Amino acid sequence: MRDESTASEFDRVAKATTVVGSLTLLSRVSGLARDIVIGYLLGAQSAADAFFVAFRIPNLLRRLTAEGALSAGFVPVLSVTLATRGRQEAVRASRAILTFAVLFLSLLTAVGLLFSAPLTRLFAPGFAATPEKFSLTVQLLRIMFPSIFFVSLLALAMGYLNTFRHFMAPALAPVLLNLSIIASAVLLLPLLSQPVLCLAYGVLLGSLLQFLLQLPFLRRHGFSWRPSLDFHSPALLRFLQLMGPAVIGAAVYQLNVLVSTILASLLEPGSVSYLYYADRLLQFPLGVFAVALGTAALPSFSSLAARNDVSGLKTTLSRSLRMVNFVSLPAALGLMVIAVPALSLLFQRGAFGAADVLASARALVFLALGLWAVSASRVLVPLFHAMQDTKTPVRVAFWTFVLNLFLSLVLMGRVEAVEGDSPFVLAVAALSQGLGAFSLSYAGLALANSLSATFQFAALMWLVTRRLGGFAWREYLSSLWRNLTAAAVMAGPLFLVAGRVQWGPGSGTLPVQVLSFLGLVAGGVAVYATAARLLRSPDWPAARNLGTALTERFPVRVKR
Fold first, then answer.
1. Is residue 286 helix, strand or coil?
2. What residue spans of 115-144 are helical by DSSP H?
3. What is the mean pLDDT of each run of 10 residues along the chain (560 residues)?
4. Cα Rg for the chain, rounded, in angstroms?
5. Is 497 part of a structural domain of the chain?
6. How many alpha carbons fall within 13 Å on the CB side of residue 373?
7. Which of 30, 240, 362, 467 could form a disulfide with 178 if both were Cys (CB 3.0 to 4.6 A apart)?
8. Structural domain of residue 371, as residue ranges?
9. Is residue 560 situated within a structural domain?
10. Is 272 helix (H, G, I), strand (E, B) or coil?
11. CB contact at 8 A, 446 and 363
12. Of 102, 104, 223, 203, which is closest to residue 158 (Cα–Cα)?
């Protein structure tokens, strides 16, 4: 009976992953279209650096408040309340949590608008040397900062809907954000003095539309918007207890990204943008599968933990991590091989030139090294949260941050400070003089992120093995080396073919290049699937079942 229950939970995870993953694929495609527009308008110049920093600040705070609350507190607490006290009590608890969130987010938004200039100085100290760039970043931040209010409410709505196993509307929401940015760039461009302002207003409008999309689905699942000032609710108090350490953990995790942004602002112009464009391509496989799998697994992990089903947790975790191996390993090697073709095809037009393609590709290669580890951690952290243990991921994230900072200073090279720089810049410059053993510049920051992510995964795996009293290491390692070998077999011919095709403007019409690129990707997938079958990858049957589930959910009807 337990085996059937465990299999049922993993089947739920697999089916939910197909829904979230397929809709996330749609959002990533629209996101790439958005980034093409951004690259065309801004390239990798000062305005682009200003936009990416201003966009990253509320995005970082959103991940601290919204995603920290969602992953660590909301879903586990709501799952336990639903299982032990019923649906009506779960709705009542949600109202109390949402009321508290609205009050807190209103205060946070007001503070952010008031302190936009100090926040910009904190997140991009290198911009202070260029007053126009600094002023533009502050202006953009003031336009986009209120978006944190709506996207944080969106994250809580997503937690509620995911608890009731509804994944469609939350996964579809990012599409509205991307379309809003694109539409604003097209419609507002003739009306505003600077193209970058169009993008900022698009972010604000898109964040509102994402939240509004959830309203009818929340109502369908019984949610009530009546405010509740029951701040003594046991569910709210437990939510806050779990959220506190998780927000700190999310803060430390996001500081890895923040450190790269701050340090990149001290390097040559364009460094922030190179890392951004490289990360956008990395987020494509990460979001389509790893984030989707982590999102889908959290309710199942929470349900198994509430029943104290340790065996079920181990089995579901093992199968989930093996699926991470199956997808992330070929994705990482594939990104390394096709970095230049992908970036050329997507971004090389307008202000984004060939030199920007090569620089962004260099960053992408080093970022892709950590894709496997980041993907696996996206599954491990929700498991700890499902067990209502938010402190362990915090401790691991702290040491990951320390390692990332140290490696960044070692790998990026020496930074020269000038008179009038902030104390932080002076400190970084002094440390880089002693630690800067290599001169990889922004690529060194990307490599530091990958190495620290690998450490985080290894530490979490060691701790979860102790926590669960063991792990199916033989099956996992078999999955790892077979899938890695299959990915290496795929990378060889992919590299040879990609190198024989000319990419970018002047190398053929766009439709021909698009078809060539899609053929390259399809060929890589076919080679990998064939190699995985010949090597008897233990994850091939599960991957085939995922494909079958996706086909059944989104059938393609052929007219006869």
1. helix
2. 116-123, 131-144
3. 51 66 75 80 75 82 64 70 76 82 87 89 78 88 90 81 77 87 86 83 91 88 77 78 69 68 83 87 78 71 80 88 90 93 84 87 94 90 83 87 91 76 75 82 92 94 93 91 94 87 72 85 92 88 62 44
4. 23
5. yes
6. 20
7. 30
8. 2-551
9. no
10. helix
11. yes
12. 223
Nearest to 367 by CA among 279, 270, 258: 279
What number of helices (H) and strands (E) belong to the chain?
Answer: 23, 0
Please measure the distance between the N-terminal and C-terminal CA atoms of the chain and give it in whole angstroms.
45
Contact 154, 212 (CB under 8 A): no
CA distances to 55, 305, 358, 474, 477 from 468, rounded to whole Å, are 40, 11, 45, 16, 18
Neighbouring CB atoms inside 10 A of 558's CB total 5
The CA-atom distances, in angstroms, between 137 and each of 47, 111, 255, 297, 393 are: 8, 17, 20, 38, 33
Residue 408 and residue 448 in contact, taking contact as beta carbons nearer than 8 Å: yes
Q: What is the number of domains present in the chain?
A: 1
Distance CA 434, CA 415 (A): 11
Task: Give domain status of residue 556, yes or no.
Answer: no
Listed in sequence order, the residues at least 6 apart from 310 whose beta carbon sits closer than 8 Å to its beta carbon are: 468, 469
The half-sphere exposure of 189 on its side-chain side, counting CA atoms within 13 A, is 12
Of 211, 157, 156, the residue nearest 180 (C-alpha): 211
Q: Is 557 inside a domain boundary?
A: no
